[in-house]
Amino acid sequence: MDVALYEGEILNITAEVSRYSDVEKERMIDKYRKAAEKKAMACPFCHEELRLRAGEIRDIHFAHLKGRSCQESEAYDTYQNQTKRENKKHSVVKEIIYNELKGQELIRPDLKVEYGYKEKAEEKWKHFPDIYLNKNGREFAVSVITNVHEIGDDKVVKTINKRNKYFQDKGLESIWFVEDRELADDFEHRVLHLWEAEYGLAIKTEEDNKWDKLLNELSEEFPGYNIPHLFGYRAHGPMNHDVRSLYYVHSIGDEITFSMYRLILDQMRSPFRAFALTKGYRMNISQALIVRDEILLSDKEREDQNRLEFANQVLFQIEASKAEALLKRDSNEARNKQKVREDYFATIVHESFKEVALTHFSIDIDVVEYISKLKYLSLSPNESEALFYFLKIHRKELEDYGLTLIEVKKWVRYALGKVNEPKIRKWLVEIDEL
Ligand SMILES: [Zn+2]
Fold this sequence. Notes:
By secondary structure, the chain is α+β, with helices and mostly antiparallel strands.
């Protein structure tokens, strides 16, 4: 163990010797070793005398006399070993939470707050929560976790699951506070990106049960709608209405705040993610840890408000998706109508384009000369075609030249009796039928 009671205070020998240079270190260790031999160092738990050991294999540490070790110091060592993976923030946050809860213990007789390793030393637990809470017989394991992604997500996942299982078997409900640098939320896409380990850190609170109830009511009222889908969340697979919450710790200097996220975990596969029911919100430590009839961990009024807003959003999204479906159907119909119209116009346009082109061409013809050629049976096939279109479109203009259609047709019939060329005859027949 790294601590001893020395001159009325806790001495942490690891922290103490780290203050000195290598040369001085030897001298300091020697000094404390002698003090221990003179019975100046006591166990902070059982107050038995301790010796200072500074071997090659183990780091410098205090130890009871042979065969005199106490349960609490053993529990303390287990706990120290367990928290080795955590960073410096871990103990800072843990102490702040402990002090806050300890303050509440004074005014709430049914609340008991203790460090996990102290509370359960006697039972020789294999894992300890940072803080043990007992509220009117209901037990909680409160743990702060840092470095979630480090030493491989896989290993952390196993560690967390093992502890969750262990505490559960011992009848405790787990509450996790996660270091905020792991937070990756994107409310615009209603998604919370997670480490695999964070699946095990999402807990179920009373407020989450209320959310479950709301979601079930909404699904009953609007069957056939997938709620996460309504919000544009693209799920890995079917999602149950099992709302959970994740608590992140933010620390700036000594100031600590929490933020809480309400979510539905997606299927456990990469990329690990969850549907975000609400935008996360921040709470200060006393708000977050109000212990009334239960550990609240959330702002009750705000949750009621959030649920109301969420229900409204669902209604809005359903209306929007109905409107969209309607619009789609209409536009399908419209598109079909448009297609028919376009096909129709395509034929007409094709014809009229030809007519316009030929009209333009026919305007240029010298109709008197063409009629003269008709009389002398010298119209070419192209000229015959041009004459047809001219007469078709500009027949009224014939008058300007002192001609009539009937007169022209008389000459056409005459020509038909004399001309054998099919390309010419075709257009002459067309003119005759005008
Ligand atoms: Zn002891």
